[in-house]
Specification:
Layout (H helix, E strand, L loop, with lengths): L5 H35 L4 H30 L4 H20 L7 H24 L1 H4 L5 H27 L4 H18 L2 H6 L12 H15 L4 H30 L4 H29 L1 H19 L5 H29 L5 H30 L2 H7 L1 H11 L9
Helix pairs in contact: 1-2, 1-4, 1-6, 1-7, 1-10, 1-11, 2-3, 2-4, 2-9, 2-10, 2-14, 3-4, 3-7, 4-14, 6-7, 6-11, 6-13, 10-13, 10-14, 10-16, 11-12, 11-13, 12-13, 12-15, 12-16, 14-15
């Protein structure tokens, strides 16, 4: 890591910057706050978990619709940075707005979350695509893994600050502090990216960029099956990343529904962040030795075990085991998927393909929370909802095995 360039470190620091949103808003504080607001309206924790799943489905569906056009536009010279900063600002303002949501309206709270998530997710489409601008194919696995690894640390620090302060504030006061802290953290650590990261590969700007982008997207859709490396990877990614993202978003509401106290849940999430940092770096190191594809296959097998184990969870210590297992796999799977695509796409069209990468991920992430919410609503058991997610990893693994051997990074 000492050999990382200033541009590579600045890119990595954005993962550090927005990870406060990831753990405070998506994983920890907001899901708990949603349960509290729901209880204020007479809604049970189980149904609150289902509503949280529906909100994530809506948010990811909207983000999926935006991603391909956003990516195609960003390939034009000068567009990538402007779009990136616009959506980053939307995410930051939406995070601040969460602190102002009334306690007696679950609909307003979830609506603001959807807006903030659109900014967060869309900015990440472009952030991911910048990886082709700041490093080489040979360094990409390690740079991507470092991004996720330091992202977990970057989420850990503001979360620890929140844990240290929350007991000195009222319930509503601690929530306001958490969301404001996540937004400010996001602003501060985006500054290195603003100063040092620039678009290297680009298409020359045309007179009607939106129309041209739509035409390019349609052409790509038609010819994508002719590129088996990209086609089979994106198809497999659609399923296995659905499972990864869904487990990330429903973890807190799952824990609350099986009776884990909020105070214990926060400690568990802290430990998971600590575990995720070295294991994200480890996945990058293993990819150098065994190949990106083999390590991703191992990650999918681990998740199949995790979802099977989730069916039997009823006690706190069992949830501890589950959470730590997720921490060992989550960051590495995300990092190596990002670098795998970055190694096989045409660099001057990287944003367009990362747009497809994100639409596959987001449409699948729409499907996963919806599947979980429906199963929980029908069965009344969150364990069954979590276990069903294992199907996504099995399908993803089968499809992943169809990727030609020549596509390995």
């Amino acid at each position: 890591m000492k050999k990382f360039t200033k541009q590579e470190w600045s890119w990595i620091m954005y993962d550090w910057a927005n990870s406060g949103y990831g753990i405070i808003v998506v994983t920890a504080v907001l899901p708990i706050w949603v349960t509290s607001v729901a209880a204020h309206q007479g809604i049970s924790a189980t149904h609150a978990s289902a509503f949280w799943g529906y909100a994530n489905s809506i948010a990811t569906f909207i983000a999926a619709l935006v991603a391909p056009l956003l990516g195609a536009l960003a390939d034009f010279r000068g567009f990538k940075s402007r779009l990136f900063y616009s959506f980053t600002l939307l995410g930051i303002l939406g995070t601040f707005a969460l602190a102002l949501a009334p306690i007696n309206s679950l609909v307003i709270l979830l609506g603001i979350f959807i807006v903030s998530f659109l900014g967060y997710s869309s900015a990440n489409v472009l952030y991911d695509a910048f990886i082709t601008d700041i490093t080489t194919d040979e360094r990409m696995d390690n740079i991507s893994s470092a991004g996720y690894g330091f992202g977990y640390l970057g989420g850990l620090v503001p979360f620890v600050l929140f844990v240290l302060v929350k007991d000195y504030l009222s319930g509503r006061g601690s929530v306001i502090f958490a969301f404001a802290l996540a937004a400010i953290w996001w602003v501060l650590f985006t500054i290195p990216f603003m100063r040092n990261v620039r678009q290297t590969y680009a298409l020359e700007t045309v007179r009607h960029p939106v129309i041209d982008s739509l035409k390019r997207l349609w052409h790509t859709v038609k010819v994508l099956p002719q590129h088996p490396q990209l086609f089979w990877f994106l198809l497999a990614y659609f399923f296995y990343m659905d499972g990864v993202n869904t487990i990330f978003t429903i973890a807190s509401s799952f824990a609350l529904a099986i009776g884990i106290p909020a105070s214990k849940l926060i400690l568990i999430l802290l430990i998971v962040q600590v575990v995720a940092f070295p294991f994200s770096l480890l996945f990058g190191w293993l990819a150098d030795i065994f190949g990106n594809k083999q390590v991703l296959i191992f990650g999918m097998l681990e998740y199949i075990f995790i979802t099977s184990f989730a069916f039997f969870i009823h006690t706190e210590w069992e949830f501890w085991v589950l959470a730590i297992l997720v921490g060992t796999a989550q960051g590495g799977m995300q990092a190596l998927s990002r670098s795998y695509l970055g190694q096989i796409v045409p660099k001057e069209r990287s944003s367009e393909f990362f747009g497809f990468y994100n639409i596959f991920g987001k449409f699948s992430a729409f499907m996963g929370p919806l599947l979980y919410a429906l199963v929980v609503s029908i069965t009344g058991h969150v364990q069954t909802g979590a276990a069903v997610l294992g199907i996504l990893f099995v399908i993803g693994l089968i499809l992943f095995l169809f990727i030609p051997k020549t596509s390995e990074g």
